[in-house]
Amino acid sequence: MCRWIAYSGTPVLLSRVLFEPRHNLIDQSLHSRMGVETTNGDGFGIGWYAQELTTPAVLRDVGPAWNNRNLQEVAHHVRSGQFFAHIRATTGTAVQQTNCHPFRRDRWLWMHNGMINEFHQLRRDLALAVDPALYPEMEGSTDSELMFYLSLTFGLTEDPPGAVARMVGLVEETARRHGVPHPVQMTVALADGDRLWAFRYSSEGSSRSLFYSTRVDSLRALHPDAEFLQEVGEETRLVVSEPLGDLPGAWNEVPESSYGLVQPGQDMLHPFQPQLPHP
């Protein structure tokens, strides 16, 4: 499986989030506490939005994150108000750049931790459901990228939660026809530069870990001496595969079978239920 971080809020240097916390993503790449694999060294990627651009930048590589000088260089010089970071542990597909997260199309970023069970059995049927106009844009061989393009096919740009629900519904229905049990295991992050969605779901009802940060104003009251909390605005949020540190009260588990929306103003948390796509 994998580990990931999604940040939304006050623009900060990427290094403040990726390298400075005690249990940062680089530490998780070597010493994950909650992942299936302790080490996540099958590639990494970051994606970030710049204020003057409508599409995000992406940097991906097949090597481990812990010794990549390009990642260090970018993270210490790029400031962003919304960015993703992902470290990969492959579930069977090749270690290659096109299989590293996050995946991008236009203004959208997508990253995933989990798997489609028996993906090799289901892959052909699922790929045939992708919009023919989108199919040539898929570059890699992962279930994660295919899940993204199925969601795009089912209307992600207009209705992200509904599109992801229809994607999961199709995967589960396809798996049922093939006799594959518990086909979906996922935590997914999705962003468009303004809003951030995070999904936690599995067909067996026992999903991989996912957490979101407590409101900054509440954390300031609990920890008035925490320097980072004084530098960011009250709408700053992080969604993470596992907590970045041990600050009491900082992290909340995303409920099973749910999704959250981080946006300007009021954040939202909703139940998540798969749907069958319309014929």
How would you describe this protein?
This is Glutamine amidotransferase class-II. InterPro entries: EgtC-like, Gamma-glu_amide_hydrolase, GATase_2_dom, Ntn_hydrolases_N. It holds the Pfam family GATase_4. It comes from Streptomyces sviceus (strain ATCC 29083 / DSM 924 / JCM 4929 / NBRC 13980 / NCIMB 11184 / NRRL 5439 / UC 5370). A hairpin with a 5-residue loop joins β12 and β13. The protein has helices at 14-18, 25-31, 69-75, 119-128, 143-153, 160-178, 216-222, 227-231; strands spanning 3-13, 44-48, 57-61, 79-87, 103-105, 108-116, 184-191, 196-202, 211-213, 237-240, 251-253, 258-262, 268-271. The protein is globular, with a radius of gyration of 18 Å. α4 (119-128) crosses α6 (160-178) and α5 packs across α6. The protein has 279 residues and is of the alpha+beta class. It contains 8 helices and 13 strands. The two termini are 33 Å apart. The chain has a single domain (3-271), classed as Glutamine Phosphoribosylpyrophosphate, subunit 1, domain 1 (4-Layer Sandwich). The strands form 2 sheets. The protein has a 7-stranded antiparallel beta sheet with strand order 3-2-4-1-10-9-11.
